[in-house]
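Weekly puzzle thread! Below is a chain. First person to post its structure in token form gets bragging rights.
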Amino acid sequence: MIRQAVVVLLRLARAAMAPFVAMSSATPRVCKYEPTCSHYAEQAVMTHGVVRGLAMAAWRLLRCNPFSKGGYDPVVRR
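Winning reply:
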């Protein structure tokens, strides 16, 4: 139940940020990772639970910087 609530919050946050992302870039895609960080967080929470999933999402956000290569970075399954 908590897992589903966190997923709903992640989806709401993604929907709330969508207009600002579209305004800040000439191209609709600005994330250097695939899947995007919000999708990654959602998948991590569903796969690994709330605590570990959010920790994995936080680590992903910390890796998102100008010096990282980005690219395909899926959630590692158990």
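Puzzle host: Confirmed. Bonus trivia for everyone else. The beta strands are 33-34, 71-72.
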